Amino acid sequence: MALSGIEIFKLLPKTNCQECGVPTCMAFAMKLAAGQAELDACPYVSDEAREKLEEASAPPIRPVVIGTGDTALKVGGENVIFRHEKTFINKPGIGVLITDAMDDVVVDAKLKTIKELEYERVGLILKGDVVAIKDTSGDAAKMVKLIEKAKGMGLTTLVLMSDSTDVLAEAAKAAQDLKPLIYAATAATVEDLGKLALETKCPLAVRGKDLDEVAELTAKLTDMKLKDIVIDTGARTLNQAYKDHVAVRRAALMDKFRPLGFPTIVFPCEMTDDPIQETVFASTFIPKYGGIIILSEVEGHNLFPLSVQRMNIYTDPQRPMATTEGIYEINNPDENSPVLITSNFSLTYFIVSGEVESSRVPVWLLIKDTEGLSVLTAWAAGKFVADAIAPFVKKSGIGDKIKHKKIVIPGAAATISGDLDEELAEWEVQIGPREAAHLTPFLKNWGTA
């Protein structure tokens, strides 16, 4: 039975050492009770307390880290079935499959694309995360060669795939420093691969013919003291894979069924030969509930929509998406370029910046921190008003970048112009259009009056 935060706190050392990354033992206890932290983060908990806290401290779906350093991928750790209940936490990894049957030109192209293809949106970089390297020949040397090629290109988040335990042993040792995901233990190989994962300290995927077999495999591995496990339900049709993923999430969160309390890996690339259909299949598992999604290709036509969908799903629905406060240069502005100001609501920023870019008029765009609220909402909340805007403008340094002293405010916030005239006495406050779509003619005529 799960323990409350107070009950957990009584079993902790109460040193408030902060080595767990939380300010106090009480705060750490509350995180343990909510499934948002792991007991291993406390270096001083006693063995007796550890045994009592094991059930309470483990998240319903164990977080698993694949890779090392800044590019490591963390999956799992989820606490809700539906995003609107709270938020989804660790976004799924999007990966590309390469095999030792592909020629070097194809392999190089796939690796180059997933390494270099990226998009910037809402101040975030959207890109692929994982390279799945698959053995089809049984030749460990070919597998190791592909690993070295990926490492040489700076791709360090890997899934190593083979039906041969010998090949996986060689591959895992070649990539051991990268902590790759070893794929996959089956009923026939679970003991050998479990020992390999323990030896190399790498996470291990399991693959069963159904969820009952998957649960048996994960139970065997946890008995071997292996904790970092990823589940492949074995389904290779959209219908069955979807049902399996929902069943895994519900079993882990609602029934507290530990053998299915692990993140998943899913292979749309093995469900269809149609690239468009493959992308549609992949989009199904971003909200429902893929941990790692492996595609046959990662190109602009699938990476962009999938990564935008992932970004939208894996944001806190209770907190607006926001852009960083500051000065943004659009179209290479100079000392004579107009200055616009707006809120840091991400949608506002991207609509305004997009229209400015399209106008080809060089502009200084000031983004005021309004805690992610849109212009009108921020104005109503007192966050986009004269006495908040004026200090920001003065401290931003924009005055050192321009010769004129003119600033354009959104037409929707025209009511603040009088107060802003007083707060920015040395500036000329101009009122821009209410709609971003009207920015182009406004900017092209700016300064002609």
Task: Please tag this protein with its features.
449 residues, alpha/beta, 3-methyladenine DNA Glycosylase II, Chain A, domain 3, TIM Barrel, Rossmann fold, 3 domains, 8-stranded parallel β-sheet, 3-stranded mixed β-sheet, 16 helices, globular
Question: Can you offer a commentary on this structure?
Answer:
The chain is 38% helix and 16% strand. It is built from 16 helices and 17 strands. It has helices spanning 5-11, 25-33, 47-57, 104-116, 140-152, 165-174, 190-200, 211-223, 238-253, 275-285, 300-313, 346-359, 375-380, 386-396, 417-423, 439-444; strands at residues 64-66, 73-75, 93-99, 118-121, 124-127, 130-134, 158-161, 181-185, 204-207, 229-232, 265-266, 292-295, 326-330, 339-343, 363-368, 406-409, 428-431. Strands 10-9-8-7-6-3-12-11 form an eight-stranded parallel sheet. Helix 1 crosses helix 2 (25-33). The radius of gyration is 26 Å and the shape is globular. The model has no long low-confidence stretch (mean pLDDT 93).
